[in-house]
Amino acid sequence: xxxxxxxxxxxxxxxxxxxxxxxxxxxxxxxxxxxxxxxxxxxxxxxxxxxxxxxxxxxxxxxxxxxxxxxxxxxxxxxxxxxxxxxxxxxxxxxxxxxxxxxxxxxxxxxxxxxxxxxxxxxxxxxxxxxxxxxxxxxxxxxxxxxxxxxxxxxxxxxxxxxxxxxxxxxxxxxxxxxxxxxxxxxxxxxxxxxxxxxxxxxxxxxxxxxxxxxxxxxxxxxxxxxxxxxxxxxxxxxxxxxxxxxxxxxxxxxxxxxxxxxxxxxxxxxxxxxxxxxxxxxxxxxxxxxxxxxxxxxxxxxxxxxxxxx
Length: 311
Fold this sequence. Notes:
The protein is mainly α and 311 residues long. 53% of the residues lie in helices and 5% in strands. It folds into 2 domains: 3-103, no CATH class; 130-300, hpI Integrase, Chain A (Orthogonal Bundle), CATH 1.10.443. The strands form 2 sheets. The protein has a 3-stranded antiparallel beta sheet with strand order 3-4-5, with no helix packed on it.
């Protein structure tokens, strides 16, 4: 091992890794934050690891053992154990860093090479029911007093329901991305996880809600499509988080933003839209990612499909 390698501790190397991710590879901030969070957890759980010589399969197995057995506070309760999907995420993000170390000859091989990642059973139901969406819409009209906020919140829900866009894409939308002549909405490459621009045809309901909203916010100068409730500026991620919490209380429906994306994908599949079209509309680079959303499809909703079988 080169002498220069021995002079660098694991913290220095991880900083170099993040710099490459951010500036050379131009990864999204959410991606680099995910790497940083998992790495910080790794060092917190494994304080004895200070240099790369300690990165062995045994030490990684010990990390996953501690993650599984350590007590942690969830609300007011103390719990232990984690989901398979959580371990899979941690395994994947750590392995990206370990492979990076290997490519630069800091490691001979990843300590995770001979440790298989778990295969989560994604059998949870993540889509929203129509009744739940209707409750959310109703709570906006019932609980809002400002015409601007009523129309803004209605547009926000409609964008999520009829476009299935990601949180980052949603926050970054600008007025210029909306074309009411062609009824199109553009998701720009610089805001998309796939780094590719995609154009979505807007649902008639969304078009109607957008026209009402844009007319109401006409006097505002900000370029951001979704505005705050008090200032002439775009809604922040913190503001979006607060909006979700507030709407949960008002509607009585417990939801998170990504459930709308699952709902969008399922609605397309139930309408017999070709899976390759669904992939394009969702902005997925890999169709296997699109297929994961199928876990929100239920067999009890497929009665008509079974009835189509003839002999």
